[in-house]
């Protein structure tokens, strides 16, 4: 892959963005797909089979961007609670569609066995613009904390906090794309006034475990399930994936709570972030969605067996 060497077209190299640069960046983001068509219409149908929760609306356009979650219709406080999130980064399509597909095709198998809470598209403004950041050039997936700078993260945080200590499994559905290297990481460097250092995008599926509370058997169970659907990313020449050492086939670790990542927002003993690679010549959009569903079901099955 060729590295991005030209200066990012917004801002001055070496100087962090101020309000003017953020506003310029936001104005340049155009709507490329419909949250209403792709997500809200599906949520409306699923609401006939699951309890529906509107847990907020984005202030930038409340009518266009309501925030929705679905949960088990037979919620029972004596059962384990499991959390599935998608679309924290709106451009990571299979995370959104995978969460919806899981609800449609697989979730009812857990009726009476677990409480499921699914937020399929955490960042709808970003989903429509195929963007990583929200409208204020803030990454929601570095914002799951008190006094969050991201309205998307703050709304989900408020929804989940009453259940935080009871959640036994949280799987957060993501993708790693070629545009991470050609657009989003260069934009991040420009926003923060830092030099852009090219990296390498892994070809295949991988997981992000928690550095502070690793669960290798749980991660392996998810990897084994997904391997039946799509290929697992292999280490680069440095024994790493996206700059982090591989700790097991297809698994790296981040300090989830320290980085204010979505997967670190609860006390769940089992938690992971999926990373699908949709740009691989060895896969296609449908396979990416099925990989996400396989990851969710494997994560739930492990948690219910070992919780």
Helical amount among residues, as a percent range?
A: 25-40%
Principal-axes shape call: globular
Low-confidence stretches: none
Mean pLDDT: 96
Describe it for me?
- It is a single chain.
- Helix 2 runs parallel beside helix 3 and helix 7 runs antiparallel to helix 8.
- This protein has an eight-stranded mixed sheet with strand order 1-2-4-3-5-10-6-9, with helices on both faces. It has a two-stranded antiparallel ribbon with strand order 7-8.
- It has eight helices and ten strands.
- With 307 residues, it is an alpha/beta fold.
- The chain starts with 18 loop residues before the first helix and ends with a helix.
Describe this structure in a few short sentences.
The chain is α/β, with parallel strands linked by helices and about 300 residues long.
Key traits:
single chain; 307 residues; 8-stranded mixed β-sheet; two-stranded antiparallel sheet; 33% helix
Fold blueprint:
Blueprint (H helix, E strand, L loop, with lengths): L18 H10 L6 H12 L4 E7 L8 E6 L9 E6 L6 H13 L9 E5 L4 H6 L21 H10 L6 E9 L2 H15 L13 E5 L5 H12 L12 E2 L2 E2 L5 E4 L15 E7 L8 H22 L1
Parallel strand pairs: 3-4, 3-5, 5-10, 6-9
Antiparallel strand pairs: 1-2, 2-4, 6-10, 7-8
